[in-house]
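Pipeline run #58 for the internal structure catalog. This entry was flagged by the ingest filter as a single-chain record with no existing model, so it goes straight to prediction. Upstream metadata was stripped on purpose; only the residue string is passed forward. Reviewer on rotation: M.T. Logging verbosity set to normal.
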Amino acid sequence: MKAPRFFQLDSLDAGLLAAEAEAGLRASAAAVSPKFFYDLLGSRLFDAITELDEYYPTRTEAGIFAAQGAAIADAVLGGTGPQPVMVDLGAGSCAKAAKLFAAVQPRRYVAVDISVDYLREALAGLQREHPAVDLVGVGQDFATRLALPAELVDGPALVFYPGSSIGNFAPAEAVRLLSQARAQCRQGGSLLIGADLVKDRAALELAYDDPLGVTAAFNLNLLRRLNALLGTDFDLRQWRHVALFDTRHSRIEMHLEARETLTVRWPQGAAGSGEGGERRFGAGERIHTENSYKWRAAGFEALLHAAGYGAVRCFTDPQGWFGVFVARA
């Protein structure tokens, strides 16, 4: 049986992460990247979100694959040929990719996440189930830069980006990432990607502000993460979760809103020197923590063409709430 290989391509230097977080707090309109959601507790809270009745994307995408999986696989393999290299962006538990193995039969599976440590257990289990497949874990912050070693993608490739994570990127940023994904298909291939589609505002906002408060806990946990990373003194009781749909930009926005006037302090500069910093927040002032863009199918197809892709097929659910797109690289 083969054994998984692992490569950590990007540094996970805590000082650099702290500097990025501090810059966001100091910005004129405070904002913190959604990548700071995903410490251990944050990841578990997100898993809980996907089980909520109100959070439709995960189960709707799964339903599309269950109902139309054979047609999706045919569309993918039409661009890659048999036994492609499969590149899984934001692989996490690798569970979604594993469900495609029987149909796609990848000769190599390259799981990409910000840290290879997230991937070790999942790939060990996957290797036991698929002993002949070459499994590789790659630690890379692909939201900043996606560039895989050529020896890992040495043939036609399937780039797999499920869920609705592409919605975290503004359109220009999405084009940049999708262009970099296409560049990994050096010998041709396909992109298989999920995108959340525009729908009733009430359904959108309920998915990001559930009655149980799980999404609120997920958002508030970001402040706990900043306290650990930067030494800030956020008191979570002074903040509330806000989720709203911005019609003009066609996106859900998540914010943390100060319940009262307060000052947040941290003990020293992120680089480990200096006198530290502070930020005053007025009552009602917000920290922007996430965007989730919602697309019309024709608009997302145009985005794929702007990133350099050729023929595009869209598979959707009966309600038209979610789209699974296959694009020729």
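catalog note: DSSP finds ten helices and 13 strands in the chain.
catalog note: The two ends are 32 Å apart (CA to CA).
status: ready for reviewer M.T.
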